[in-house]
Amino acid sequence: MRTIIIAAALLALVACSQETPPAQVDQPAPDRGEEALYATAPTDAMTTGDVQVVEQAPEDAAHSEGGTLVTEEAIDEPAPATASGPGVLQLAQARSASPNGQFREGRHFQRLSPSQPTSSGPDTIEVAEVFWYGCPHCYEFEPFVRNWKDNAPDGVTVVGIPATWNPLLVLHARAYYTAEFLGVLDSVHREIFREYHERRNPLDSEGRIRDFFISQGVSAEDFDRGWNSFNVQSRVQRAEQLARRYRVTGVPMIVVNGKYTVDGRSAGGLRQMLDVAAELVEREKAAR
How confident is the model at residue 42 (pLDDT cuts 50, 70, 90)? Predict the structure, then answer.
């Protein structure tokens, strides 16, 4: 009965089709008692289709041909704190509960076989967050990821990899890498999330993204220079390649050093993702 009620309520709120792009759907604030943790992508990176809301991801979610799936799982998780508040895990404080760790492969995280390349150098352990600006759970997760980045210990690098599984996400990826190219990523990254989720601007065209950057103090000439640069185009292509190599089926996802993947569904929650990733970082440090 609970499943039917949840599904009916959520389906009444979400209705997307090829005529109504996902970016223009009003996303209600997540119910804390029924936290949706994982937005899954279709196998075909360019597929568009109906958004479905289900209580539990089907076994073959990674092979769905219908379109983006948004899974809903029951998690008793309070609203996340701000980046400086309680509940924020710092990589510098990563710990393991036992010599073998408390988290298990196949249950809390997956191992990539073979290991895949990273965007960082060989002398650093990379923690990569795969995200989409339109994902409400990535929006919630962002303060924690920012805190990781600000407090990462020596030898650990925290990076972002924008998802690129359809044309809208490719646009948002270009916005991310344009901001990085222009040296304004730290100031506009959070603002892009807010523009989408709070101001209801879908940022679904170059013109809208250009206007947003201008509102953030970037000149039109600088935006055009970055947006059309070979550097940005190459970075987007690289993100597409990494998503395939990392077998990204949804966001948010954490990839540790090109070897392990963690998502909210397997970890048990957004904060739990950080616990699992921190332990995997410790394993990588111990193996060196």
Answer: low
Specify which residues 160 forms β-bridges with. Answer: 129
What single DSSP character describes residue 182? T
How do the residues of the chain divide into helix, strand and coil, expressed in percent and rounded to 5? 40, 15, 45
- Residue written as token pair 């036992």: 98
| Pair of tokens at residue 209 | 């993204």
Pairing of strands 253-256, 260-263: antiparallel
What are the pLDDT digits (tens) for 101-154?
Answer: 789 999 999 999 888 888 887 789 999 999 999 999 999 999 999 988 898 888
Tokens of 237: 């292509």
Terminal CA-CA length for the chain = 51
User: Can you list the alpha helix ranges (DSSP code H) found in 103-184?
Assistant: 136-151, 167-181
226 Cβ neighbours under 8 A, 6+ residues apart: 178, 179, 181, 182, 232
Q: Is residue 29 over pLDDT 90?
A: no
**Whole-angstrom distance, CA of residue 75 vs CA of residue 271:** 11
Domains identified in the chain and CATH numbers: 2-71 (no CATH), 91-286 (3.40.30.10)
Cα–Cα distance for residue pair 101/236, rounded to 1 Å: 35
Tens digits of residue pLDDT in 182-191:
999 999 999 9
Angle of helix 220-227 relative to helix 167-181, nearest 10 degrees, comes to 120
The model's confidence at residue 192, banded by pLDDT at 50, 70 and 90, is very high
> What is this structure's pTM?
0.71
In angstroms, rounded to a whole number, what is the distance separating the alpha carbons of residues 184 and 66? 37
Tokens of 76: 């008793």
Sheet of strand 156-162, all strands in order from the earlier edge strand to the far edge: 110-111, 260-263, 253-256, 125-131, 156-162
